């Protein structure tokens, strides 16, 4: 009997999972709480809850351009349309690409839209019990699968920092998950907290309209070198009292609006404890190679590693998962996998919260390690070269990246 796979989510990762399942000759059913594909690339004005009373998952905002060139945001053998000359493209262009991928490969027929996965539990006969709920009627259904691919995204449960006195702040405060556009910040004094990609991008968006934008960050943070000098830099916050923010360098500012760009938590509220996967200060334990559920290897998780090129990572992870399910990859014993995960955790001196962050060199090591253990094709070297170039060279938006082969790229004028 053909193996039947449940896929949680129909964002970029879920779509890739459907394609790989079908290509490998398996049956699959994807469950998506929204009524569309594309996950976080779907912009909505709404925040909070959707029309069905479910939490809004997307963290997308107006006028977003990608922070990676589209040449490393591509599914294998599925290029962006030729009329798109620029490398750093807009949110609607990425969404169109994901929709095209789903349409042209006829993936949508495998997706149950408006369907929330509410519970996943291993059965006694090595299968998976998956409970889903119709988002509209609220009726629940129980289904049985042989394997599960968790592709529920990782940018929808805000990490709220514990800043002394934040609860006394008399202005307006949101997390970047709920940021939609610069307009509400017109003529306001704004403090953006956190200088990851969203913190920097949002600060730059509101800078032209706001009265003043302060960006508070830890100078040792990963992206410190990319923070534009036009923003007023601030060190970390010491405390907040009413509308006054006291910083650790003793400076004080009166602030009207705060935007917390402080990241997200991994969240798998539907997973039974029996899976042995848990999240501790954003470290996901119980996984082999940040991918395979050690307790039940018929379950895998897409893109736990952070600061990576997501789409090439999903595809490699899927090649590894199917090598395992097709019997080409023999996993070590559970004990060895647990030891491996534990040793990996100990080998990094960072906090749990930062453990999954790879960065360019870390992502290369991760990719090659995965590919090597499974005997599958790794992500082409050119992806690393482009990724490294983006973060080490000054951005020149008059030029685009052109991939020459698996190892080389060139910069070309956009009219080419
Ligand atoms: C603001 C922002 C900017 C970004 N910019 C870039 C960029 O420039 N380049 C880049 O490569 N990446 C970027 N990313 C990263 C982006 O998240 C990934 O590129 C990718 O789209 C993530 O896809 P995903 O499928 O893993 O997750 P998502 O897109 O989050 O999709 C997960 C899907 O699962 C569904 N879901 C969740 N839980 C359930 C459940 N219980 N039941 C049913 N369905 C469920 C959700 O509704 C959602 O549709 C950005 C992310 C954000 C938030």
From TrEMBL:
Known EC number:
1.-.-.-
Keyword list (alphabetical) reads: FAD, Flavoprotein, Monooxygenase, NADP, Oxidoreductase
Which GO MF terms are attached to this record?
Answer: flavin adenine dinucleotide binding; N,N-dimethylaniline monooxygenase activity; NADP binding
User: What cofactor(s) does the depicted protein rely on?
Assistant: FAD
Q: What class of enzyme is it?
A: oxidoreductase
Key word NADP present in the record?
yes
Entry similarity comment: Belongs to the FMO family.
Q: Name it.
A: Flavin-containing monooxygenase
What species is given as this protein's source? Answer: Henosepilachna vigintioctopunctata
